[in-house]
Amino acid sequence: MKKGYLGIDIGSISTKGVILDENNEIIESSYIWTEGNPIDAVKRLLNQLQNKIDIPIYGIGTTGSARKLIGLMVDADVVKNEITAHAIGTTHYYKDARTILEIGGQDSKLILLKDGIITDYAMNTLCAAGTGAFLSSQAKRLGVEIEDFGTLAVTSKNPVKIAARCTVFAESDLIHKAQVGYQKEDIIAGLCRSVVLNYLNNVGKGKKILEPIVFQGGVSKNKGVVKYFNEILKTKVIVDPNSHLMGAIGIAIMAHEHQSETPKNLELTNISFETKGRECEGCSNHCEILRIYKDHQFIESWGSKCGKVS
């Protein structure tokens, strides 16, 4: 009997799902917007995937910012951070990879590898100037579809210099450049270049970026950003066709390794999940306690630093 393994990567902007077969090859995948509601996004994701497959799922893994919550929701066999998931997904296809550049909707990561093992990493979750959300907001400001952003950027012959270190400064600079008459494609190219410089100056600061270099995350689909990584790093970065799904692929591979003895139930449409928070006043820690309910039944709590409260 054929078996499938599901990996779910739940980010703040997008939610990705991948189903692998027993050879860890992709059977189906789905990419949807989280829209501020990871529980609803995963329900929609599972509905889409179930309509595309007819094999039982024997392993589920979750990664991403909402991995713990969604792990409870889907009865995951493995829950791991994005660094691990991206590294495993990448080395499945590129065993010799030494550097992973990842830029998502609201954060970015740098992962360094040697012989398939993570040796160092860095994350940026504070500044939005080097992320997909930043590019999307600027595309809207310029009246350009984000899907066309990269294509326009690579047509530029004279990219303008955009302040790269801060979202506020970058936006002010963009407005000024537009007002003094710079061509739209030159401004867009400058924005793509600023994203690369911001990433290398902040996330990559002090790190030795070695080849082969794999670029992934939603922003890897932007031809302009890829162009400037190639130019500034003086090499050709690898962009896999499934670069936007690599975290989901990695966690699905881990789910395969930790598979269940019985098939999973993916029908969650009519099941309710709720998180209730409160501040504990039992000691000076004042922990924020989160209690998770499934169909109004308490199933888990997080946040207690002393372990006395559940």
What string gives the helices and strands in order? EEEHEHEHEEEHHHHEHHEEE
Question: Unreliable segments (pLDDT under 50, ≥5 consecutive)?
Answer: none
Structural class: alpha/beta
Beta content comes to: 15-25%
What is the gyration radius calculated from CA atoms? 21 Å
- The biggest beta sheet, please? 5 strands, mixed
What is the straight-line distance between the termini? Answer: 42 Å
Oligomer kind? single chain
Give me the count of strands: 12
- pLDDT average, as an integer? 87
What does this protein look like?
- With 310 residues, the protein is α/β, with parallel strands linked by helices.
- Helices cover 35% and strands 25% of the residues.
- Strands 3-2-1-4-5 form a five-stranded mixed β-sheet. A four-stranded mixed β-sheet has the order 8-7-6-9, with helices on one face.
- The longest helix has 19 residues.
- The radius of gyration is 21 Å and the shape is globular.
- The two termini are 42 Å apart.
Q: Which helices and strands, and how do they pair?
A:
Layout: E1 4-10, E2 14-20, E3 26-33, H1 38-50, E4 57-64, H2 67-74, E5 78-79, H3 82-93, E6 99-103, E7 108-114, E8 117-124, H4 132-142, H5 146-153, H6 167-179, H7 184-202, E9 213-216, H8 223-233, H9 246-257, E10 273-279, E11 288-294, E12 297-302
Parallel strand pairs: 1-4, 4-5, 6-9
Antiparallel strand pairs: 1-2, 2-3, 6-7, 7-8, 10-11, 11-12
List keywords for this structure.
single chain; alpha/beta; 12 strands; 35% helix; globular
Quick overview:
With 310 residues, the protein is an alpha/beta fold. The chain contains nine helices and twelve strands.
